[in-house]
Design brief:
Blueprint: H1 30-33, E1 43-47, H2 75-83, H3 87-98, H4 108-141, E2 144-150, E3 153-158, E4 167-171, E5 179-185, E6 191-195, H5 197-200, E7 205-209, E8 228-232, E9 244-248, E10 251-255, E11 260-261, E12 266-268, E13 272-279, H6 285-288, H7 299-332, H8 354-368, H9 376-393, E14 408-409, E15 421-426, E16 433-444, E17 447-449, H10 455-467, H11 470-477, H12 512-524, E18 529-532, E19 539-542, H13 546-557, E20 560-565, E21 569-574, E22 583-593, E23 601-608, E24 614-620, H14 622-626, H15 637-649, E25 653-662, H16 664-678, H17 685-696, E26 701-712, H18 716-725, E27 729-733, H19 738-747, E28 756-760, H20 765-770, H21 772-793, E29 801-806, H22 807-813, H23 819-828, E30 831-835, H24 839-853, E31 856-861, H25 867-872, E32 875-879, H26 886-890, E33 893-895, H27 900-940, H28 951-961, H29 963-972, H30 978-983, H31 989-992, H32 999-1024, H33 1038-1060, H34 1066-1088, H35 1091-1094, H36 1100-1105, H37 1109-1136, H38 1140-1149, H39 1152-1155, H40 1157-1166, H41 1175-1191, E34 1208-1209
Parallel strand pairs: 15-27, 15-31, 27-30, 28-29, 29-30, 31-32, 32-33
Antiparallel strand pairs: 1-8, 2-3, 2-4, 4-13, 5-11, 5-13, 6-7, 6-12, 8-9, 9-10, 14-33, 16-17, 16-26, 18-19, 20-21, 21-22, 22-23, 23-24, 24-25, 25-26, 28-34
Main location: membrane
Binding site for Mg(2+): 427, 429, 862, 866
Domain P-type ATPase N-terminal: 45-112
Length: 1212
């Protein structure tokens, strides 16, 4: 078959790259090849022979993945286990079993039916939520990929149907369906570009390469007779290592991580690749990093179990008291009660066997007093939580119009947990940022260019404007130099505005020659490929990183358009040439020293074909470039440093640009040495290449610096500011390099000037080589000790610390003997940034914070690399962004933009917490109030086992007569409106401090229930005892007394819930007063039914209670007596010790926020949590700086610094 078209202009990148494409000595000797096959290295893959892996001993798992909690087989046992982990359900299961005995006071149906209903409803809810996860799994498993079916023919198969050993063809912008060995690509030398953002959060494209021996497999037909064997490591979670051999045509070749394409990474800038599958499904490295979907329970639900233990203890206690009382009465008084015929009752009332009678009565009492344990509590909570989840799902203010995605509560079990979060652990790329770089500013020859403000500057200025009048700011600072001026629509990747450089005006600048060199460096120092754009007539660029793409767009807009690349040449169209006419200029590409995280710089060596000059053009981190400058190349150093500090404070990513001119002889000598190092086959080859490159990149001349804005998602700085004001701590966990993370920290206002940075990193590799663990631990412990001492000695109340740690150091910091020390330092810092961390490390950090602090953690991310921490955290939030759905599938809640987290927590979290807390406390109150009246009547009637209430009353009490008001409380209650929640985020701390569900409040509500039960029973008995009840002179019988007491209970508990509610709609009014009305309607309907059904309650309201004034009077008196103490208590609290929401309710009720706006603003400022991060903290720091200038005081000395070994920095 003919070759499939031209391959990327015939570029052989292995001839251009100096590091990523170094090819080792791939052919192994026999003794080297035989090292595999031991423990941990036993996997054998027969390439293009997948059928061999479907049988033992090579029966590997399929590529099907599942993120669900249950499957068809495990659903019933697991779901039932989950339901009976709840203490109340376990008790009612026992009670249902006892109801089958003859001594039960109720029928078995009346006990089993409610339990089956409650458990069944909860299981249905679990099944629905897990079904949604299953459907998302189906979407992923159902994706298609081209697979070799034999005879050189490929066909599309679903991901779930491919197997180990299959040869697959993945095309541009597709995800890899499994872990593959790269065989060949559309580039002639087997190079391909891979985006691993879903794995490690990095946006830079990675260069992968195939073995040289498989590059000839360049089209479909090549695989007709292809066979090979791979022997490699077993499945493991390490993303950055791979050990294996490739046996092909009787030769054995070494495999490296650069040969492996991991599942959930994406093919970029490459037309297609061929690969053979090594690991499938849950064996793949990304799935190895994932953890099983945990069964999460909220802290309130766990505490509720403890409260039920208390209620169960009370139940057992009063049952024992009742049992003892019954045994004593049976022995002492039963012989005198001959009319009860105790001898004919099978020994239950036998005076000669009081112990047996007491034990039998104990069972009766345990069932009878079961109303102390609210069986409908769980089902009511389920209904409330599902309703709350619907409100979250349908909140239009959390709907993203661009992606057309709403917020989604994937589970409703954790709604109230949203209101108790203490620490947020966030991913960076795709979560805080939108992976778009815009060229915004630059410094050339010591002159700053670019007048457009960054998002951070604009947000800060707006915040300052809200804090003080413009005149105050101007008087403090002279004039504001940051203006939120109307801005014209920017070209993607280019937001620069400055007429001094645009439209060719730069040629009139005094330093035009240096500016020209600056633009040429942008256009030449890269590895991008230009692709013609038929729509615009220009070019789009396939670059390794968004930064690189932004530089090329900027160069084009300045008149230096990169238009063509050949194997050894780069072509630029220069619009503003010295001759005045546009020209296409060729630069011979002699060498390329590419960027990596260790070098932190990139260089190209080119020859200008017009002038014949050889130039080294270099761009990199400013600290790296500055130390390589020659004495004569530092002319603009001080000015450039000042500009870089300003750019950093504005949240911009910066790079420094430099150059040097090479003599022909100098370059020739260096190139000879460089080529010799590249072809060296010894173990020190890479170090040798790095050393020779380092020698060339010295004695540079500084040209300038770039400032690129890593575009944050809309509203991120403002959201972080509000969350900080709400008292939340924010950690950033990213796979990106440390410089990038720090820039984003500034952009998000997690970092600011004046904040002391504690950087933990292992720097001395030579020392580590001697004794890795010992040296590293000693190094880290020393730094932690020094940092702890510095924090303790700090006296400035405004001082702030930021902890920055890399993944290598974190490996040791998370070990058992160090992790607690590390955590104690971290929680003292205002912000924490962890860089270069693996997915497993993200999960381990989350677990450390969760278990070490004992407080609620929330993890938020958007990629597969975030799944571990999302599942490990108490609450997992997935960002439903553009790339993949792995994070969403593993999450508890999903949102489309980070900014929606503010409303999810500060509004919905606050509401849900208070609603559930009040609802549960009220449930315990009303059931204690109701259940204890049964006990009092038992004691009043000789512990006879007789209930004062009709069976139907007791069945309807929780199910109908008091259920809807409490559900309306849980669904609709609002202490303050959503607008006030957002204006006063400090209200959120009521949930974080658990003010409404601590033991003090729970016990208070229990005593309220106890008081209510005493008042209702004894006041009702006192009113009716020995008193004429009807006009005929009759006294009240048990049915009349029981109905009256029950009426008082209905009124008391419904009036109580009306007093609790702060926010009334017609629904609450309907449910509360409707419940009372429904009681009277039931009495009428029940009393009108046949006497065989209604029994002693026949016509009880119409003929007995209704005409009796004492019935209505007692209802009024008892209901008032029950609720007046609570009314007095809440009135006293509002007057003497009001809570925050009480004050706000008063202000809103009397419209003080409208009448006195200054007072309202003043209250907002006073109500803030003291925070050292966010826009507010940045503005307050600026005001302190302005105040210092006005008072002309000496500048406050910086915080005491440690020795250089601690690497603690205080940028000013």
């Amino acid at each position: 078959m003919a070759r499939r078209g031209k391959k990327k202009n015939g570029l052989r990148w292995s001839k251009i790259y100096s590091f990523a494409c170094i090819r080792p000595n791939e052919v192994l000797e026999d003794e080297q090849a035989s090292s595999l096959g031991g423990p941990g290295y036993s996997r054998i893959v027969h390439c293009n022979q997948s059928h061999l892996h479907r049988q033992k001993p090579l029966k590997y798992p399929s590529n099907y993945i599942s993120t669900t909690k249950y499957n068809v087989i495990t659903f019933l046992p697991k779901a039932i286990f989950e339901q009976f982990r709840r203490v109340a359900n376990l008790y009612f299961l026992l009670a249902a079993g006892l109801s089958l005995t003859p001594i039960s006071p109720f029928s078995p149906f009346s006990m089993i039916a409610p339990l089956a209903f409650v458990v069944g409803l909860s299981m249905i809810k679990e099944a629905v939520e897990d079904w949604r996860r299953f459907m998302q799994d189906v979407e992923v498993n159902g994706r298609n990929v081209s697979v070799h079916k034999g005879e050189g023919q490929f066909e599309y198969k679903q991901w779930q149907k491919i197997c180990v050993g299959d040869v697959v063809k993945v095309e541009k912008d597709q995800f890899f369906p499994a872990d593959l060995l790269l065989l060949s690509s559309s580039f002639e030398d087997g190079i391909c570009y891979v985006e691993t953002m879903n794995l490690d959060g990095e946006t830079n494209l990675k260069v992968k390469r195939s073995l040289e021996v498989t590059q000839a497999l360049e089209d479909d037909a090549s695989f007709k007779d292809f066979t090979a064997t791979i022997r490699c490591e077993d499945p493991n979670p390490n993303l950055y290592t791979f050990v294996g051999n490739f046996e092909y045509e009787r030769q054995v070749y070494a495999l490296e991580p650069n040969h492996i394409l991991l599942r959930d990474s994406k093919l970029r800038n490459t037309t297609y690749v061929y690969g053979v599958i090594i690991f499938t499904g849950h064996d793949s490295k990304v799935m190895q990093n994932a953890t099983k979907s945990p069964a999460k329970r909220s802290r309130i639900e766990k505490k509720m179990d403890k409260v039920i233990y208390v209620l169960f203890t009370i139940l057992v206690l009063i049952s024992v008291i009742s049992s003892i009382g019954f045994a004593v009465i049976t022995k002492t008084k039963m012989p005198n009660w001959w009319y009860l015929q105790p001898k004919n009752d099978a020994g239950l009332y036998d005076p000669s066997k009081p112990v047996a009678s007491g034990l039998a009565h104990l069972v009766t009492a345990l069932i009878l007093y079961g109303y102390l344990i609210p069986i409908s509590l769980y089902v009511s909570i389920e209904v409330v939580k599902v309703s709350q989840a619907l409100f979250i799902n349908r909140d239009v203010l959390m709907y993203d119009e661009e992606t057309e995605k709403p917020a989604h509560a994937r589970t409703s079990n954790l709604n109230e947990e949203l209101g108790q979060v203490d620490t947020i652990l966030s991913d960076k790329t795709g979560t805080l940022t939108c992976n778009q770089m815009d060229f915004l500013k630059c410094s050339i020859a010591g002159v700053p260019y670019g007048v457009r403000s960054s998002e951070v500057e604009i947000a800060t200025e707006k915040q300052m404007a809200s804090e003080a009048s413009v005149s105050e700011i101007e008087s403090a600072h002279g004039t504001t130099d940051i203006v939120d001026r109307p801005q014209k629509p920017a070209i993607k990747g280019f937001s620069f505005e400055d007429d001094r450089l645009l439209h060719g005006n730069w040629v009139r600048e005094p330093t035009a020659g240096i500016i020209r060199l600056f633009f040429r460096t942008l256009a030449l120092c890269h590895t991008a490929i230009p692709e013609p754009n038929e729509e615009t007539g220009g070019f789009t660029y396939e670059a390794e990183s968004p930064d690189e793409g932004a530089f090329l767009v900027a160069a084009r807009e300045f008149g230096f358009e990169f238009c063509r690349r050949q194997q050894s040449s780069v072509f630029i169209k220069e619009k503003y040439s010295p001759s005045g006419d546009p020209v296409e200029r060729e630069f011979k590409l002699l060498s390329l020293l590419e960027f990596n995280s260790k070098r932190k710089r990139m260089s190209v060596i080119v020859r200008d074909e017009e002038s014949g000059k050889i130039l080294l053009l270099c761009k990199g981190a400013d600290s790296i470039i500055f130390e390589r400058l020659s004495k004569d190349g530092r002319m603009y150093l001080n000015e450039t440093k000042q500009h870089l500090n300003e750019y950093g404070e504005s949240g911009l990513r910066t790079l420094a640009l430099a150059y040097k001119v090479l003599d022909e002889s100098e370059y020739s000598a260096w190139d000879t040495e460089f080529q010799r190092a590249k072809t060296n086959i010894g173990p020190d080859r890479e170090a040798l290449v790095e050393h020779i490159s380092d020698n060339m990149e010295k004695e540079l001349i500084l040209v300038g610096a770039t400032a690129v804005e890593d575009k944050l998602q809309k509203g991120v700085p403002q959201c972080i500011d509000k969350l900080a004001q709400a008292g939340l701590k924010i950690w950033v966990l990213t796979g990106d390099k440390i410089e990038t993370a720090i820039n984003i920290g500034y952009a998000c206002s997690l970092l600011r000037q004046g904040m002391t940075q504690i950087r933990l990193s292992i720097e001395n590799d030579d020392l580590l080589a001697q004794d890795v663990n010992k040296a590293a631990k000693e190094n880290i412990l020393m730094k932690l000790t020094n940092a702890s001492q510095m924090i303790k000695l700090e006296k400035d109340p405004h001082a702030a610390f930021a902890l920055i740690i890399d993944g290598k150091t974190l490996t040791y910091a998370l070990e058992d003997d160090i992790k607690n020390h590390f955590l104690s330092i971290a929680v003292e810092c205002a912000s924490v940034i962890c860089c270069r961390v693996s997915p497993r490390q993200k999960a381990m950090v989350t677990r450390l914070v969760k278990e070490g602090t004992g407080k609620v953690t929330l993890a938020i991310g958007d990629g597969a690399n975030d799944v571990g921490m999302i599942q490990e955290a108490d609450i997992g939030i997935g960002i439903s962004g553009v790339e993949g759905m792995q994070a969403v599938m593993a999450s508890d809640f999903s949102i489309s933009q980070f900014r929606f987290l503010e409303r999810l927590l500060v509004v919905h979290g606050h509401w849900c917490y208070k609603r559930i807390a009040l609802m549960i406390c009220y449930f315990f109150y009303k059931n204690i109030a109701f259940g204890l009246t049964i006990f009092y009547f038992e004691a009043f009637t000789g512990f006879s086992g007789q209930s004062v209430y009709d069976d139907w009353y007791m069945l309807l009490f929780n199910v109908v007569l008091t259920s809807l008001p409490v559900i309306s409380l849980g669904v609709f209650e609002q202490d303050v409106s959503s607008e006030v929640c957002l204006q006063f985020p400090a209200l959120y701390q009521q949930g974080a401090k658990n003010l409404f569900f601590d033991w003090y409040r729970i016990i208070g509500w229990m005593f309220n229930g106890l008081y209510t039960s005493i008042v209702i029973f004894f006041l009702s008995i006192g009113i009716f005892y020995n008193r004429i009840f009807r006009a005929g002179g009759q006294t009240a019988d048990m049915a009349a007394v029981g109905t009256t007491i029950f009426t008082c209970i209905i009124w008391a508990v419904n009036l109580q819930i009306a007093l609790i509610m702060s926010h009334f709609t017609w629904i609450q009014h309907f449910f509360v007063w409707g419940s009372i009305v429904s009681w009277y309607l039931f009495l009428v309907a029940y009393g009108s039914s046949s006497p065989t059904l209604s029994g002693n309650s026949y016509k009880i309201l119409g003929e007995a209670l209704g005409p009796a004034p004492i019935y209505w009077l007692s209802t009024l008196v008892v209901a008032a007596a029950c609720n007046i103490p609570y009314l007095v208590h809440i009135s006293y609290q509002r007057v003497s010790h009001p809570l925050d929401h009480h004050v706000l309710q008063e202000i809103k009720y009397y419209r003080k926020d409208v009448e006195d706006e200054n007072m309202w603003k003043r209250e907002k400022v006073r109500a803030r949590q003291r925070t050292k991060i966010g826009l507010t903290a940045r503005v307050e720091a600026k005001f302190r700086q302005f105040a210092g200038r006005l008072s002309k005081k000496e500048k406050v000395p910086s915080s005491p610094s440690l020795s250089s070994s601690t690497n603690i920095q205080n940028p000013q």
